[in-house]
Design goal:
- Keywords: Cell membrane, Membrane, Transmembrane, Transmembrane helix, Transport.
- By secondary structure, the chain is an all-alpha fold.
- The chain has one domain: Up-down Bundle (Growth Hormone, Chain: A).
- Helix 16 runs antiparallel to helix 24.
- The longest helix is centred in the middle third of the chain and has 31 residues.
- The two termini are 41 Å apart.
Length: 445
């Protein structure tokens, strides 16, 4: 690392950094331009994640899939996160957060480009490969950005700072849903109704036409990604790595894993994050299906409006959580939101009319403080800062919950024949978050 420093000093940066690093890798103050630019990455992976909710509905009908099989969209997506997070942390350790972000943006662009051949080959497995490729790029981005956001300023405001960055997430999520709503979903009768009377070649051709629409949103995303790559390349960012001796910097993966395996609080955080992200993904994956099952007269485009409202609620929930965290502890905010979220999921399970869909919107708002708070608190349990990059990657790896929980919820929906009752899976996950936040409150008392 020391050999790279002269090169970094000679490099050209249009936007300079005006902050000083502390011994632990935090900054003495927030560099607002860099922080906002970094926060703008959060909508980028949010758009990809929310488009998955559109794709699940589209693929289920075109490829005639069960709820379980359609959930493999999320398995491919979050499986990519899981497999690549650790290699991404190694890139951070050997280079920098900025370089890792640039790699992530490039790989994300390549993944989006794969939707072009996928839409022509028109098989479910090829689309899953394209989604997996996108997730590889996003894993680099999120492994770097989540930890980096907590480091771009004073240590005492790290949790609040990550919550602020996460507040940008719903902007991308709403954008992704709107792109899918107007570019992928068609007007008129639902896709299932339109394909019901088609057979043989006519059904195949119509299905291929519908799959061609799936690449349209990714054209816009590619343009945005190129602009972001240019901006990051021209902006100076701090290393944000703890100032330690050369020997300490060379902490091996095996040493880090042994350290983290003995850290009970870290393991609790990982387990909770696994359940939370699985619940979030499951609720958003099946909101459109829930709406259509409760009101068969609406089509996919109309039902996707509820997802727009869900992400607006998610944004408002984050804003409210950020405000409350200035008054009370993040753990208490998390506990209150989790209690209310669990009660809302009970309503969804047992009230079989359209009001239940509005409670899925409420649940999305109550997701507000979860990811960022659990992430930051879990990362703070790593007191030996040599292990920060790898620990951050492992927290990101807990996103694999998004590949597992929706599958389980899809299976429950298929077994019971009720999309409403399948939300019991998400309820169990929110109860785990309640237990986690309650334990954190006890330790902080």
């Amino acid at each position: 690392m020391s050999q790279q420093e002269p090169k970094q000093k000679k490099s050209f940066h249009l936007f300079k950094l005006k902050a000083t690093e502390t011994e632990e890798g935090y900054l003495d103050r927030i560099p607002w331009f860099q922080f906002i630019l970094l926060s703008l990455l959060f909508p980028l992976w949010a758009a990809a994640a929310s488009l998955n909710d559109i794709l699940i509905t589209q693929f289920k009908t075109v490829f005639t899939l069960s709820n379980f099989a359609s959930a493999f969209v999320q398995s491919a997506f979050y499986g990519g996160y899981f497999l690549i997070a650790m290699p991404a942390s190694n890139v951070i350790k050997k280079t920098s957060y900025k370089f890792t972000i640039l790699v992530g943006l490039l790989l994300y662009t390549i993944g989006c480009s794969l939707f072009f051949p996928a839409s022509h080959v028109a098989t479910y497995s090829i689309f899953l490969v394209a989604i997996f490729a996108i997730a590889i790029g996003l894993s680099f981005l999120e492994t770097a950005a989540n930890t980096y956001s907590s480091l771009l300023g004073p240590k005492e405001t790290s949790t609040l700072r990550l919550n602020i960055s996460q507040t940008f997430y719903p902007i991308g999520a709403v954008s992704g849903i709107l792109l899918g709503k107007y570019l992928i979903f068609s007007e008129g009768a639902s896709l299932e109704e339109q394909m019901k009377g088609l057979t043989g070649t006519a059904r195949i051709q119509f299905g291929e036409e519908m799959l061609q629409k799936t690449l349209l949103p990714y054209k816009f995303i590619i343009i945005i990604l190129i602009v972001m790559m240019i901006l990051f390349a021209l902006t100076e960012f701090p290393k944000s790595k703890p100032k330690t001796t050369t020997n300490e910097k060379d902490a091996k993966i095996s040493e880090t894993l042994a350290y983290l395996a003995k850290n009970k609080e870290f393991l609790k955080g990982i387990g909770t994050q696994f359940m939370y992200i699985g619940m979030q993904t499951a609720v958003w994956s099946f909101t459109i299906r829930l709406a259509m099952s409760l009101d068969p007269s609406i089509n996919e485009r109309s039902a996707s409006t509820y997802m727009v409202f869900s992400f607006i609620a998610f944004f408002l929930g984050k804003m409210l959580a950020n405000f409350l965290m200035k008054k009370i502890s993040p753990s208490k905010v998390l506990f209150i939101f989790s209690i209310l979220g669990s009660l809302s999921l009970l309503y969804i399970m047992f009230v079989h009319n359209m009001s239940a869909v509005y409670f899925t919107i409420l649940v999305s708002g109550l997701f507000g403080p979860c990811w960022a708070t659990i992430y930051s608190q879990t990362l703070d349990t790593v007191t030996d800062k040599r292990h920060t990059a790898t620990a951050g990657a492992i927290i990101v790896m807990s996103i694999i919950g998004g590949a597992v929980i929706p599958l389980i919820q899809g299976l429950v929906a298929d077994w019971t024949g009720s999309m409403s009752l399948s939300f019991v899976v998400s309820l169990v996950c929110f109860i785990v978050v309640i237990i986690y936040s309650k334990n954190r409150m006890k330790k902080e008392a």
